Structure formats: C-alpha cells, structure tokens
Amino acid sequence: MSVLVRILAGIDALSRACGYVAAALVLGIAGLILAEIFCRTVLNVSLSFAWEYAAYFFAVSILFGAAFALRTGGHVRVMLLSQSVSPRVAHWLDVAATAVGTVIAGFLAWALTAFAARSWVSGSTSATIDETPLVYPQAAMAFGAALLTLQLVARAVRLLIGEPPEDESAKQEFGAG
C-alpha cells in the first residue's frame, strides 16, 4: 500500500507544482496585455505576439489550474443532490461523477496529444507573423489534460480505498480547513 500512497503523493506534488505554473501563466497574461496596451498607447506599436501568447497561456493555465483545484478541494460539487441522499449513496455518486470526469479528461488528453503529434509531424505553425510552432502550446495543453486525468484517477482511488480525499489533506496544508 505504501507504493500506492507514494504514487498518489507524487500526483499531488505534480498538481501542486503545475498550480504554481498556472498562477505564473496568469501573471504572464496580465504582463502581455499590459505591455500591449502600453506599446500601443505610448509607442504607437503593436506587439504582434502578445494576444497569441496570452491565449496559449490561458489554455494551459486552465488545465493546470483545474488539476490543482481538484487536489485542493476548490472544485464545484452538486451538494443539493449529495445532501438529499444517504452518505453511502452520496459516496457512490462522488465515485460515479469522478469516473465520468476521468473518462472525459482522458479523452481530452488523448485528443490533445494526437493533435500535438499531428502538428509535430506536419510542422504546423500559427497564422501570425511570428509563425509559432503549434506543437509547443498543444503539447503543454495535452500535458495539462493528462495531469487532470491523473488527479481524477487519484481521487477515484482514494474514494475506492476509503482514504480521505486529497482535498481534505490539502485544506489542512493550505490552511483552508
């Protein structure tokens, strides 16, 4: 069982690290937008890459942040349904919802990985003047979707073995509970 606990802890640590990357990407988005506004108003020059890279940063930060939010209990639950049934039924509803989420996130990870692989093989670039190789942002998004899938699998394992969900330990770690 200690190997399983170590794997789950590794997934949590990776989610935590990617949560910090997501926060840095959000700051990067703000920086790019502020730089574009400054350059347009003061220098009368546009940064051709600012909006393109801000969009890439946004997509990656959403996926990285989703895994972090799931780990820390910041996700949305349908509490009305859970509160209107017995704790046992609520537990199995949580298991079922986690399973459905895992399938959806797994499909997203697979599709984004295939998309990035096609961009790698074809050498696809963005349609902007900078011609950014699309494989880089697509690979980052595929990694984020795979991380979200791993975090959902970790949650499902914890629910099935009766270990407290990762969000309870994360709440204590982050002082939320």
Name some characteristics of this structure.
disordered C terminus, 0% strand, mainly alpha, 177 residues, 80% helix, single chain
How would you describe what is shown here?
This protein has 177 residues and is mainly alpha-helical. It has one domain. The chain is 80% helix and 0% strand. It contains six helices and no strands. Helix 1 packs antiparallel against helix 5, helix 2 runs parallel beside helix 5 and helix 4 runs antiparallel to helix 5. The protein is elongated. The two termini are 27 Å apart. Mean pLDDT is 86; it is low at 169-177.
Largest sheet: none
Query: Strand-residue fraction?
Result: under 5%
Number of helices: 6
Tell me the structural class.
mainly alpha
- Mean pLDDT over the full residue set: 86
Give, in order, the helices and strands. HHHHHH
Summarize the structure.
Helix content is 80%, strand content 0%. With 177 residues, it is an all-alpha fold. The longest helix is centred in the first third of the chain and has 42 residues, at 2-43.
